[in-house]
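Morning, I've got a small favour to ask if you have a moment. I've been staring at a protein lately and its backbone has me curious. You're getting the sequence in one-letter code plus the fold written as tokens. I've dropped the whole record in just underneath, so have a look:
=====
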Amino acid sequence: MLPASTAPQATPRPPPTYTTIPIAGADVISRSLQNLTSSFSLFRPLPEFLALAEFSPPPSLSSAKRRFLNNLSHFRLNYAVLALSCVILSLLFFQSPFALLFISAIFFLWLVLYFFREDPLLLWERHVTDTFVLAGLVAVSVLALWTTGSLGTLAGGLAAGGLIMAVHGFFRNDEGLFLNEQEAASRGLIAPGQNGNPWNSN
């Protein structure tokens, strides 16, 4: 009798690794754009975000704080898009199209060169440190706000977005939100490796 043959098991694909050696600016931007597009998977569907049946006044201050923190973690990309939309509308209605394009370009630089960059940057065959990148982005941002005179408009748009986020975060019931094990364990709701719905204790 021939021994039963077993099918070879597929080896899991290792996660992408990033080099610690400075690479060219074009490659850095390309990888940052990949990180940016992959972050869109965190965007929650609008029917879930705008589910009116899930809105109710919080019964207590502690419940309101819990709701806000849980909603902020769960809908963080939705809130970011909401704040960005308020800023864009403010610049569109109260500033010139040039200011909107200028501020949008600066914001894009922040995304690809700072927030979503994981590789060291090489510019003109010289290593650019993170401190230098941050200082350069801050200087360019201040220059853009001073040139366009849009600081007040930008602050107003962010304030409007923050107000909408706060109302949503405090009044959106968080007990029906889906959490995977990694998110729940990172927030201390369950022990690592524990299965089950962390909201059953409420």
Notes: The chain has eight helices and three strands.
